[in-house]
Amino acid sequence: IIAGDRSVLSTAIALGVVFGAHRMLGAIRIHQQDVFSQRVVTYAMRNLLAKAASIDVGHFDDPDWHDRAMRARRDAGWLPAQMAFMSFEMFGSAITVIGMLGLLSTMHPLLGVLLFGSVVLWLVIQRRVTRMLFEHRTLQTPADRERDYMESLLGAHESAKEVRSLGLADHLLERFTRISESGHRRNERVLRAANGLTGVSGL
C-alpha cells in the first residue's frame, strides 16, 4: 500500500511539474510574441510613414490614394501583429497536421489521403473567406473615412465650437449614425456568409 501511495504521489508530482512547465512556457511564448509583434508593427508603421513622406504631393489630392492610405494607417496598428501571431499558430498547426498525416498513413494510406484532401479543401475555402473579407473592408474604406471625418468635426476641440455655432451638430451626428449603422449591416451580412463558408470547411 505504501509503495502504491508513493507511486501515485510521484505521478501526481510529475503531472504537476509538467502542467506547470506547460503554463510557464505558454506565458513566455505569449510575452515573446507580444514583443515581436510590437517590433513588426513599428517596422510596418515606419515604412508607411517613410512612404508618405517621400511620395509626390499630388497624391494627397487623389481620393483613391486617400482610401489606400487610410486602410494602411488603420491596419498598421494591428494587422502586422495579427499576421505575426497567426504565423506562429499556423506553424504549430502545420506541425500537428504533418504528425497526424504520418500517423494515419501508417495505419492506412487512404486515411492519410483523406486527411490531406480535407486540409486542402479547408485552405481553399479559407482563402475565399479571406478574399471576401478583404474586398469588404476595401469597399468600406470611403464610408469609414467619412465617419472618421464626422468624429473629428464633432469631437475635436478645433472644430466643435464652429459646429455648434452653425447648428450642425445634430445633422453630423445623424449622418455619423446612419453611416455606422449601414456599415454594421454590411459587415454582418459579410460575416454571416464567411461563417457559413467556415462551417462548410469544418465539416
Secondary structure blueprint with pairings:
Blueprint: H1 2-54, H2 63-76, H3 79-107, H4 109-155, H5 157-165, H6 169-202
Helix pairs in contact: 1-2, 1-3, 2-4, 3-4, 4-5, 4-6
Backbone structural class: mainly alpha
- Could you name the ranges where pLDDT drops below 50 across 5 or more consecutive residues? none
The count of helical stretches stands at 6
> What is the CA-based Rg, rounded?
26 Å
The total of beta strands comes to: 0
SSE order, as H and E? HHHHHH
Average pLDDT works out at 79
Helicity range? over 70%
What percent strand?
under 5%
Described by its quaternary structure, the protein is single chain
Main sheet properties:
none
State the end-to-end CA separation: 49 Å
